[in-house]
Amino acid sequence: MKHLFYALLMLVSSVATAGGASVKVYTNGTILTMNDAMPRAEAVAVKDGRILAVGGRSEVLKKAGDNAETIDLHGHTLMPGFIDSHSHVSLTGGTLAFANMSPKPAGPIGSIEDIKAEFRRWMKEHPLKAGEPLVGMGYDHSQLREQRHPTRRDLDEISKDIPIVLIHFSGHQAVLNSKALEMVGYDASTPDPEGGRILREADGKTPNGIVQETAWIPIKLKVFAATYEQKKERLEKALALYMAHGFTTAQDAAITDQEMIDAYRHLGRDGDLKIDVVGMPYEKFADKLLANYDRDRHYRNHFRLGGVKLVLDGGSPGRSAYLREPYYRQHKGEKDFRGVPFFPNQADVDERVSHFYQKGWQTFIHALGDAAVDQALHAIEVAEKKYPGKERRTQLIHLQLFHPEQMDKAKALGVTATFQTTHVYYFGDFHRKETFGPERAEKICPAQTAWKKGLSVTIHHDSPIHPPDQLMLIWIAVNRVTRSGRVLGPDERLTVMQALKASTINAAYQLFEEKEKGSIEPGKLADFVVLSDNPLTVDPMKIKEIKVLETIKEGNSVYSASQG
Predict the structure, then answer these.
(1) Within a 10 A sphere around the Cβ of 518, how many other Cβ atoms?
(2) Counts for the chain of helices (H) and strands (E), in that order
């Protein structure tokens, strides 16, 4: 009888819940669904973390039941939560532990003297342990008054006894002082590693402190090393930033160790991972970290492993993106310099991508310059011929230079495209003058052409390279305005709706998650963002002024502007 009583009690409870006790209805605002069959709605009902109904207010309220809780949007806009197309959550968390060397207004830096002053201030407020390096993140030589990179001599003025590492905003290079060069073992006899450069002084031998691509990986591993508890703490801080910007799904591309995966797993187990995170191990560690891919590719407590990350070249401001044609301005000692391919031998790229396809791993390829894109497409074509018959949705990342004939080939291979459109605003003027020249700069991040070609198009911020601010990114993609106010490549502007889809349903598709996320449809996860204004009706130049009021993951509020 006792068991029968509890069974009846549970039945009554479930009926009461089905009647609407746990149902929420969002209404009295603008609801943008990203579903072409019903682009707008008057109300949406949520039950048990999923969308129960969407449509007209009276219809949704009827399906929700008499006991449903009504959430008044007060005229604000509700749409699917933002889905990150490419970034680095763990690196974002790591940079929050370093001195902020970003240019104004994101940081305090306008000159090399500002960098020195900020390092000195940071040391006073954050005493270092013996042997611990002093680290700053985010400097941008193109925005410094001196219009050059700092060198070891500049950093030696701060200290010759403490290792100092100044990381470029791109994450593809850094400046080391003499002590840091000594710590990593670089001197006049050290050759450039494959896929990297150790820049030299006038004698052509002595390192000047600037290390690029693979040459800075040894110091990078030391700088970002952290205890397990530090990793968890940094992840929590970074994810709080993503949630404040409306993200319900984030990415951590290029994970290098099991400890980071464990940190995510433990955060999820303890209920501290509030949004979904997709991790992509860096290719050098993929065989170990993706050993259980068939199991780990599925979410457990908001974390999963999405596939493998391969990097083919560097960044354009640091002149390590791999180009078909030489950089617009050649520096002293350069002749027809086209950048730094990580794998000069095409066969090495082919072998890696074929290995990923054989394993069944979804593949995410960093290819910024057009020559790197050529390498990626050749390798994908080789792999498809070896291992045909499976939908891959291999993603090409950054794509600053991406030509129509490359797009046609990508479309035929089922490749998707995500553009680092932030470069148009932050570096458009610099690219015109220095890296690409006026003609090529007009065509950087050609998202509209790719859209018209039928590719799946998304846009990304690449945090910590740029802040994880999707509304700013949408503003850039829609307006393509540089820092100086120039419209760069007007034909490549996305419409507002295209930019919104690139931030939601298209991003879900590129992760094989479009059946669960990216649009407001019955049965999908109730992942939403509430905005202060409707991006479709405000002046396009004011989109970046729109505020994220609330972020909702599976029906639960994970960020509210009213609560800070």
Answers:
(1) 29
(2) 20, 23
Which tokens belong to 403?
């030509």
Reply yes or no on whether the pLDDT at 12 is more than 50: no
- Alpha-carbon distance 387 to 381, whole Å? 10
| Number of neighbouring beta carbons within 10 Å of residue 486 | 14
Reported confidence tier of residue 4, pLDDT bands at 50, 70, 90: very low
Measured between alpha carbons, how far is 442 from 352 in angstroms, rounded to an integer? 33
Quote the distance between the C-alpha of residue 500 and its chain's center: 16
Q: 207 - beta bridge partners?
A: 200
Angle at 76 (CA atoms; ends 74, 81), nearest 5 degrees: 130
β-pairing, 395-398 with 416-419?
A: parallel
Number of domains, the chain: 3
19 Cβ contact partners less than 8 Å away, ≥ 6 residues apart: 65, 66, 67
- Whether the Cβ atoms of residue 32 and residue 79 lie closer than 8 Å to each other: yes
In this structure, what DSSP letter does residue 390 have? S
Element spanning 376, H or E: helix 370-386
Question: Residue 255: which domain range?
Answer: 241-558
Does the pTM exceed 0.70? Answer: yes
First to last CA, the chain: 51
Write out the two tokens for 514: 């479009």
Q: Is residue 86 part of a domain?
A: no
* Residue type present at position 161: D
Of the candidates 340, 345, 412, the residue with the CA atom closest to the CA atom of residue 377: 412
Residue 3 above 50 pLDDT?
Answer: no
| Residue 363 sits in the same domain as residue 500 | yes
* Residue spans of beta strands (DSSP E) within 299-429: 303-305, 308-311, 363-367, 395-398, 416-419
> Do residues 338 and 468 both lie within one domain?
yes
**Residue 141: inside a domain, yes or no?**
yes
192 lies in a domain? yes
Residue 51's CATH number:
2.30.40.10
- Total count of residues recorded for the chain: 564
* Owner of token pair 């990216």: 518
pLDDT tens digit sequence for 477-516: 999 999 999 999 999 999 999 999 999 999 999 999 999 9
Q: Are residues 253 and 387 in the same domain?
A: yes
Contact 378, 348 (CB under 8 A): no
Residue 84 lies in a domain: no
DSSP structure string for 298-313: S-BTTEEE--EEEE--
Same-domain pairing of 279 and 415: yes
Tell me the per-residue pLDDT of 423-450, one tens digit each, with 9 for 90 and over.
999 999 999 999 999 999 999 999 999 9
Query: Same domain for 439 and 517?
Result: yes
Phi first, then psi: give them for residue 430, nearest 5 degrees: -65, -40
Spatial separation of the C-alpha atoms in residues 54 and 553, rounded to whole Å: 17
